[in-house]
Specification:
With 203 residues, this protein is α/β, with parallel strands linked by helices. The two termini are 27 Å apart. 49% of the residues lie in helices and 13% in strands. Helix 8 (137-146) crosses helix 9. It has a five-stranded mixed beta sheet, sandwiched between helices. It has a single domain, classed as Carbonic anhydrase (Beta-carbonic Anhydrase, Chain A, 3-Layer(aba) Sandwich).
Length: 203
């Protein structure tokens, strides 16, 4: 597997970038890793980086984006925060990844059995966690209104809705990314990772 170069990055479309991630996850599920020399990639990327994707995912230890999509050093920007929520710093990171560094796709990836989402559903309040969970509350409020109890199924619905709300926030709060998407320069897409079988389903 080749290291990402500027030429490879320039020739990729958002559709290509999406397809690479889908293929990588398929290899991951089948436990088939692409052949790559990580030490060579360290050396090659020391001269510059040209990642094709930026992936916002949760800090959950079971969801390492590089492994889940079978990517190597220099392939993707990985942004991780509990509950894959959006804030100003994350938007700035995504804008850098796409507008400055040339990435072709923004993926917001939630996951099943998410501790942050579960905590938000249970209205946990603790230190700085309270402020973080407040960003998941809009999704909780909507799903709570439709369910008599917040069982496991309802919590998973919150996880999916939270991803969709994060995408809405990206488009609303980042004119740069919204314009790039409307121009066809990037794709902004949501996904859910299943911690039970390793599969990523794109919305």
């Amino acid at each position: 597997m080749k290291t990402q170069t500027k030429k490879i990055q320039d020739n990729l479309t958002p559709i290509d970038a999406h397809a690479i991630l889908v293929a990588g996850n398929k290899r991951f599920i089948q436990n088939l890793k692409a052949q790559r020399n990580l030490q060579d990639q360290v050396l090659e990327t020391s001269k510059g980086q040209y990642p094709f994707a930026v992936i916002l995912s949760c800090i959950d230890s079971r969801v390492p984006a590089e492994l889940v999509f079978d990517q190597g050093i220099g392939d993707i920007f990985s942004v991780r925060i509990a509950g894959n929520i959006i804030n100003e710093d994350i938007l700035g990171s995504m804008e850098y990844a796409c507008k400055v560094a040339g990435s072709k796709i923004v993926v917001v990836m939630g996951h099943t059995k998410c501790g942050a989402v579960t905590s938000a559903c249970k209205h946990v309040e603790l230190g700085n966690i309270t402020a973080l969970l407040s960003k998941i509350k809009p999704a909780v409020t909507i799903i709570e209104a439709k369910n008599d109890e917040m069982d496991d199924k309802a919590i998973e619905e919150v996880s999916e809705l939270n991803v969709k709300f994060s995408i809405d926030e990206i488009r609303a709060k980042s004119p740069i990314l919204a314009e790039m998407e409307s121009n066809g320069e990037i794709e902004i897409v949501g996904a859910m990772y299943n911690v039970s079988n390793g599969e990523v389903l794109f919305f």
